[in-house]
């Protein structure tokens, strides 16, 4: 359902484009404008709205549609409000204008990641309410800041707050990724981000001499060990067609620092790595491996963590899990093909799962290239609108899941 001019545009698309124009771009997101937009939506939809400030200036906005049996654990629909920065010169259209081309593609930062999902949740709720539906379980929509820089002033703090406990979430949906085929990807677990900085110290001196025990030689050894491990994991992935990216551990060397002049051997140099540790890895043993690589490189080689998540959890993607049964059952009724996978990067789902709440990562975008964090991020309006239909069915199913043993 493509709409051409603004006069015939579907109101859900217009709302989506309005939200995309709010500049919640890191590192200085306009969170105030996003919250005002969401408060207005709550007012329009007749939803209650709660604001929880988890750190100074970092507010979680919670919109609530009360169920007919509010004693049952609720459904949590999470989305983050911030977006990543852009390289404006590489975009065909202003990334904060939400330009729609003649074919119906909407160009904007956040079009896929993940302002589409925020508006799809809201529009699905609006549709269900306007059709007079009520469901046993309460539905909470949480809009969180800070996800794009780790969620440390967002979901990580929120899950520890009494206001979060009070939501009594039984199951959560959060972001996924687009899929270029006819299928939809759904994520039941995630790799854990480990960002480490290896610092190597050694003897300084004049760069014309063969100085022994330099920082650079030892750093080179660590880099070689880590890149050899990278190659091994890459081969393991390529050799097994059943393995997807999220099932192996990845690593990239992302920063090299040190040195002051061509002719001065520096006393310290460092290398930074972005590891994504697969959920089945023994993390204690893996940390020991990192220590070994540093020790083997020589004296004075250490590492520190800039990011370390150690509590990966899996939400079972089989029918022994009633939430999966409801989710996949609704998808089946809609004839959607699902591809269950482990999320290769990190989302706020990891914090939700870590406090014991099952969560699936799902952004209903098929026939769409993965353009999150990329130049010219875009989404076709027809895919966006179909996503509203999909959430409408999913929410009906999830909010109607009967009480489970132990639930009250
Ligand atoms: C590690 S916190 C940063 C979160 C970011 N998430 C995505 C989806 O890009 C990432 O994985 O780099
Ligand atoms: Zn995201
Ligand atoms: Zn992102």
From TrEMBL:
Gene3D superfamilies: 1.10.150.900, 3.30.70.360, Zn peptidases (3.40.630.10). It holds the Pfam family M20_dimer. Zn(2+) 2 binds at residues 113, 148, 373. It comes from the Eukaryota. Its EC number is 3.5.1.14. Its main location: cytoplasm. InterPro entries: Aminoacylase-1_M20A (IPR052083), ArgE/DapE_CS (IPR001261), Bact_exopeptidase_dim_dom (IPR036264), N-acyl_aa_amidohydrolase (IPR010159), Peptidase_M20 (IPR002933), Peptidase_M20_dimer (IPR011650). One of its GO terms (cellular component) is cytoplasm. GO terms for molecular function: aminoacylase activity; identical protein binding; metal ion binding. Zn(2+) 1 binds at residues 80, 113, 175. Binds 2 Zn(2+) ions per subunit. The keyword Metal-binding applies. Residues 189-299 form the Peptidase M20 dimerisation domain. It is found in: Cytoplasm. The active site is at residues 82, 147. One of its GO terms (biological process) is protein catabolic process. NCBIfam families: Ac-peptdase-euk. This is N-acyl-aliphatic-L-amino acid amidohydrolase. The lineage of its organism: Eukaryota, Metazoa, Chordata, Craniata, Vertebrata. The gene is Acy1.
């Amino acid at each position: 359902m493509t709409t051409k001019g603004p006069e015939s545009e579907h109101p859900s698309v217009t709302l989506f484009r309005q939200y995309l124009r709010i500049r919640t771009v890191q590192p200085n997101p306009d969170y105030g404008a996003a919250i005002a937009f969401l408060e207005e939506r709550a007012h329009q939809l007749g939803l209650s709205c709660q604001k929880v400030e988890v750190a100074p200036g970092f507010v979680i906005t919670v919109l609530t549609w009360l169920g007919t049996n509010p004693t049952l654990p609720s459904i949590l629909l999470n989305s983050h409000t911030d977006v990543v920065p852009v390289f404006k010169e590489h975009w065909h259209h202003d990334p904060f204008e939400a330009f729609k081309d003649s074919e119906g593609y909407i160009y904007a930062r956040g079009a896929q990641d993940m302002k589409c999902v925020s508006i799809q949740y809201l529009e699905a709720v609006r549709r269900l309410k306007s059709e007079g539906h009520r469901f046993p379980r309460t539905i909470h929509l949480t809009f969180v800041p800070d996800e794009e820089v780790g969620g440390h002033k967002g979901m990580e703090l929120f899950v520890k707050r009494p206001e979060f406990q009070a939501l009594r979430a039984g199951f959560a949906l959060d972001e996924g990724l687009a899929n270029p085929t006819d299928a939809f990807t759904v994520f039941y677990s995630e790799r854990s981000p480990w960002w480490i900085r290896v610092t190597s110290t050694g003897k300084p001196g004049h760069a014309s001499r063969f100085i022994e025990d330099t920082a650079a030689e030892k750093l080179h050894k660590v880099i070689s060990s880590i890149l050899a491990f990278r190659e091994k994991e890459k081969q393991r992935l390529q050799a097994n067609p059943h393995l997807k990216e999220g099932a192996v551990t990845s690593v990239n060397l992302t920063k090299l620092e040190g040195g002051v002049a061509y002719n001065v051997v520096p006393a310290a140099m460092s290398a930074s790595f972005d590891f994504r540790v697969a959920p089945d890895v023994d993390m204690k043993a893996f940390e020991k491996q990192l220590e070994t690589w540093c020790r083997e490189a020589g004296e004075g080689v250490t590492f520190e963590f800039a990011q370390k998540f150690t509590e990966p959890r899996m939400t079972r993607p089989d029918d022994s899990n009633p939430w999966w049964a409801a989710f996949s059952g609704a998808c089946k009724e809609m004839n959607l093909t699902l591809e269950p996978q482990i999320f290769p990067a990190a989302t706020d789902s990891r914090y939700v799962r870590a406090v014991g709440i099952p969560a699936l990562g799902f952004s209903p975008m098929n026939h769409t290239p993965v353009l999150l964090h990329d130049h010219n991020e875009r989404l076709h309006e027809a895919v966006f609108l179909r996503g509203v239909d999909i959430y409408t069915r999913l929410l009906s199913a999830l909010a109607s899941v009967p009480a489970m043993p132990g639930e009250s």
